[in-house]
Amino acid sequence: MACDPNALVDAAKCFDCGMSGVMFDAVEIVLLCAIRDGTALACDPQTLLAQASCILTCIPVGMMPAVKVSLLCQILNP
Amino acid sequence: MPCDPNALLAQSQCLITCIPPGMVAPVKISLLCNIAAARTPQGVAGLAHWWRADSLVALGVANGGAVGGAGAEWVDKVAGAIASQATANLRPTLVTSSINGKPAVKFEGFFSTNSDNLDFLPTFTMTGDFTTFAVAQFTNFANGCSHAFLNGTPFNCAIGVFKSGTNYGSQTRVDSGANQSFTAYSGVNPDTVAHCLTNRRSGAAAGNQSAFFNGAQQQTLTLNGTYTVTRICLGAPTFGVDYSVVIPEILHYNRALTDAEVVSVYTNYLKRRYALP
């Protein structure tokens, strides 16, 4: 994917669907887990939100940034 | 990656200007989706079977516990094909922390009929073109060839490791009979390092069989165009040398991947996950 801003926005339009900030955080964690584990995900908002529901339930909102950093470290050093 | 703040801001200037604030989070998700798609072996079409040993940890199999009995089968993540062993003393064991700290299944092989192995019958069949990746690390590997995974009976479809003196390599075989196998020497001692062996069959034309060692193609050979696999298993139930091998993961594609796809699966996924060369 080229990093042309207009192309990036166009490609992301399906995710501009009313998700709250914390939902975006949870989805981001789901995707980082998939990247770490090499598992495939259907990248549509409904599927991602369904996958993120347990993240929303189980991880305190204030801990999400730290969890994301931890996952990035695990991706960097698998 | 240099993380100079000024350089980062300069590189981001266009994005800061052009992406509406409300679209930043969606763009980030979209980009992560693309990264995830590039990093999974399922991003390359045709992944029919995928065994990864962390599934056994999730089942509750303990370190050193037997693999293949009831409740401890090695289940394929894609198709649900079950690798099992009915005979207790032929079951391999789980090593919860092996190559790069990842779980793996340990097979003890002997030049006898008593080596560890897992059967894929009846759910696993193998015909036509294929590409198979296996990550493995051998120890106690005697001279000879070890068809350590996806071995048929009698040896009609296998990939494994070959050792003769100081020559080491991967060996691939399709069909039984003479001139049906070849060895691609890598110069890497299978006793000491983890590696990825890849075996590809592509049609019946000349050069249809290829072996890759850590993502690099070693050799091609023309083998007979047809084969019939009557039994697929992991391990070497009826042939082998004295060896011990840990195998954390096997990927089986039901088509011949291109060279670039082989490199992609190795580089983007297996190499990263297992810290391979």
| Gross CATH architecture of the largest domain in chain B | Sandwich
Low-confidence stretches of chain B: none
Assembly state here?
heterodimer
Whole-number radius of gyration of chain B? 21 Å
Short overview:
Chain A has about 80 residues and is an all-alpha fold.
Question: What is the topology?
Answer:
The complex is a heterodimer of chains A (78) and B (277).
Chain A: H1 5-12, H2 21-37, H3 45-58, H4 64-76
Chain B: H1 5-18, H2 24-39, E1 47-52, H3 54-59, E2 74-75, E3 82-83, E4 93-95, E5 104-109, E6 117-119, E7 130-139, E8 144-151, E9 157-164, E10 167-174, E11 181-185, E12 194-201, E13 209-213, E14 216-221, E15 233-235, E16 243-253, H4 259-274
Antiparallel strand pairs in B: 1-16, 2-3, 4-5, 5-16, 6-15, 7-12, 7-16, 8-9, 8-15, 9-10, 10-11, 12-13, 13-14
Describe the structure.
The complex is a heterodimer of chains A (78) and B (277). Chain A is built from four helices and no strands. By secondary structure, chain A is mostly helical. Chain A has one domain (18-76). In chain B, the strands form three sheets. In chain B, strands 1, 4, 5, 7, 12, 13, 14 and 16 form an eight-stranded antiparallel β-sheet that branches. A six-stranded antiparallel β-sheet of chain B has the order 6-15-8-9-10-11, with no helix packed on it. Classes of the chains: A mainly alpha (78), B alpha+beta (277). The A-B interface holds A 1, 3, 5-6, 8-9, 11-16, 19, 21, 24, 27-28, 31-32, 34-35, 38-41, 43, 48, 78 and B 14-15, 17-20, 22-23, 25-37, 39-43, 100, 269, 272-275.
